[in-house]
Fold this sequence. Notes:
The structure holds 2 protein chains of 2 kinds. Chain A is built from 19 helices and 24 strands. By secondary structure, chain A is an alpha/beta fold. Chain A folds into 3 domains: about 10-30 and about 45-85 and about 285-355 and about 495-570, FAD/NAD(P)-binding domain; about 90-130 and about 140-165 and about 280-285 and about 355-495, Guanine Nucleotide Dissociation Inhibitor, domain 2, CATH 3.30.519.10; about 185-270 and about 590-610, Guanine Nucleotide Dissociation Inhibitor, domain 1, CATH 1.10.405.10. In chain A, strand 9 (about 170-175) and strand 10 (about 175-180) form a beta hairpin. In chain A, helix 3 runs parallel beside helix 12, helix 9 (about 225-235) packs across helix 10 and helix 13 (about 425-445) crosses helix 14. The longest helix of chain A has 21 residues, at about 425-445. Chain A is globular and about 70 Å long. Chain B is α/β, with parallel strands linked by helices. Chain B has one domain (about 1-180): 3-Layer(aba) Sandwich (Rossmann fold), CATH 3.40.50.300. Chain B is built from 6 helices and 8 strands, in the order E-H-E-E-E-H-E-H-E-H-H-E-H-E. In chain B, a hairpin with a 5-residue loop joins strand 2 (about 35) and strand 3. Chain B is globular, with a radius of gyration of 19 Å. Mean pLDDT of chain B is about 85; it is low at about 25-40 and about 200-205. At the A-B interface, helix 5, strand 8, helix 12, strand 12 and helix 17 of A face helix 1, strand 2, helix 2 and strand 8 of B. Strand 8 (about 165) of chain A pairs antiparallel with strand 8 of chain B.
Amino acid sequence: MYNTERRPSMAERRPSIIASSAQYSSSSLVVPHLAGIEDPLPDTTPDKVDVLIAGTGMVESVLAAALAWQGSSVLHIDQNDYYGDTSATLTVDQLKRWVSQINETMLPCYSNAKLYVSNAIGNDNRKYISRDFGIDLSPKFLFAKSDLLSILVKSRVHQYLEFQSLSTFHTYENDSFEKLTNTKQEIFTNQNLPLMTKRNLMRFIKFVLDWEKHPQIWEPYATKSITEFLIEKFNLEPAQVNELIFSIGLCYTADTKVPHALQRIRRYLISFDVYGPFPVLYSKFGGPGELSQGFCRSAAVAGATYKLNEKLQSFDPTTKVATFTDGSKVMVSEKVIMSPTQAPRSHKHVPKQNFEIHRLTCVVEKSCSEWFTNNESGAVIVFPPGSLKSGNKRVVQALILGSGSECCPSGTCIWYLSTTEQGDRAEMDLDAALEAMEISIIRESSTDIVNDEDIVQITDNGQTVVNSVKLGQSFREYYPREPVQHLLKLYYTQHTSTPPFDIVAPSLFENETTIRANKLNKFTAEAGDNGVMYTAMPSTEISYDEVVTAAKLLYEKIVGSDDDFFDVDFEDEEEMMSNPPPAKYENAIIDDEDADHDMDADSSEFVGEMEI
Amino acid sequence: MLQFKLVLLGDSSVGKSSIVNRFVKDSFEDLRESTIGAAFLSQTIKLNDNGKEVIVKFEIWDTAGQERYKSLAPMYYRNANAALVVYDITELDSLNKAKTWVEELKNKVGDDNIVIYLVGNKLDVCEKDSSKRLVSLEGAKEYAKEQGLLFIETSAKTGANIKETFQEIGEKLYDIKKTEVNTDLDGNTGEIEISKPSTNDTTSCCS
């Protein structure tokens, strides 16, 4: 668009490239393998940078890496002494400090933080220590086919991280957890599904994989709810409708609009089998906190400067000088980008955060392995509207991470519950969901039952085998003798400008109007954040889907175009030679259009199966 | 093949990157260096275990400048098997800084889990002009002994003791690994390699 001449990128600026630039005349840049650690670094803070970014949350970190690799000089700061900001993964001690910051109202965009920490966690010979735990402030998982995943691979940031699969999605229904029927095979082998239902379900799945190509089917329902559409158009039963909307689609209400819901249901289905029989992944040692660190490291390798414990005091858009609270200054030639949580004390332009996300994070002293598939350590539990005692109107979503995720010690488990319900009702819903989960895990893991031959089978070698699926039913009346031990319980409300569901829209950054006013020298007197562009707080979205969109939008506003967003190829001799990637590799995760071809192939498989 | 993560710590300009470059680019021409662009460097070395050749691969993480304001991320230290804490023998203060990095490392990682090597770099400068040496060999050695660290002086410029340092770390780590060999040499951790999508569709029963 208004793209003027592009700054030379990191790769182009390297002497080794300039010397042999003829070889690298193609558009994709090759970065030599020692890039970033070849040259000694300057000793002092740069006195002039292109972009200043405050806050090391997911979006800011992806943006910093993209800009640094594109060739911009970036100073990336955070007021905290840890990485991650709104996306941080915190130890128990850090969490205590974070909560008191909120309650002293030193941290905008959060409120109502309440933290309980059991005395089993401490520093002197207690059972657990603070750093045994990594608690995510905005827990998220990664769809196997998603823009962030492509960028993780392309930028090589994935090499700093370890990923694990998550295949179990439970829907809470009639006071028990139903494991999701989410594979073609399961649909066909599930004895509980009547033939007609199987047929209808398969017909819907075939349609949704390329729903955009069949407007004749969905357009008449474009402004209607997905529930109505699934029942009227595909004759699906309530149980399947709930699973499709809430567990597969991860929607928040039953009246989600048809196109939105279809897109989300498709997202789950196309992510299945990209790496194996599961739709999502999560990163070990912490979610967004780890990913943020990875992108920050990548940005640093590309030349960005990092400074924690640094806070902006004010930015003067006329002189372009940013002043920090420690008295140091830097000249910013292009833009100051800032997370609302990092706003200077004298801020006047922080966008209104109109939406609430209520979160309840609970660490329990149970492994919860009953909820996981073999060898996995994560699960998702969804409580559809009306399924809880509280009469919840909106969904409560729970991400469960066990000790295999390395976020908590063996024998414990972290439950992340959240809801888009607003106001006081939200906490009631979260409490009801927590109670339902506690009752369920006690039923399923209880060992106080002996000598009941109906439920407990004794094998030849005398081992007791308890069938967890049957237990859910048989123990409806069972009252737990031992309640679930809470090691940590944290309630908080996060505020965001992103409406539940509208994944980041350009308009979110349109407080550019204030920036335009700034250009005309209409600055707000006494404001420390004139001319600053704020990023959006994380939305309620439980996947990372918004992150790249938001980072790209900001990138375009700074660079003028998003053409070269992470347009970097790394030199990689060994892997290329010894391990040629499968032919399908590039297309399988990066290119959506080609994916559609793959999907077509899959669809014909469905047809084949239908005729069995 | 055994693989170990090795991190470098120390103030900026003590020569951390030069040490890595000397080791990775120079020392082992006969073994391919594997190159991982923006992520980290790796280099393999050969060890001799009673006549049996053992190959050990180092995954070497450099700070990428994030140490300048003590802005290293927990990710950097995590699961590190060994750390080179580097100081400059011509800079008096750099040993004190190295000591704070050792503290930091012990706080973040726990010292029974990691082999720490204290490295005094820029030996070449002092060999030319002994008046340039400002950190005494004995003082540093004594500190290393107190703290239970390995210790050496090197020159990344001439290559002196660089190869030997990594070789010694390799042997040390190999010995540690051998004693715990029953734990998991290639246990299934459930980790997914995301740059390698699966090619076989396990749910299609008709293919």
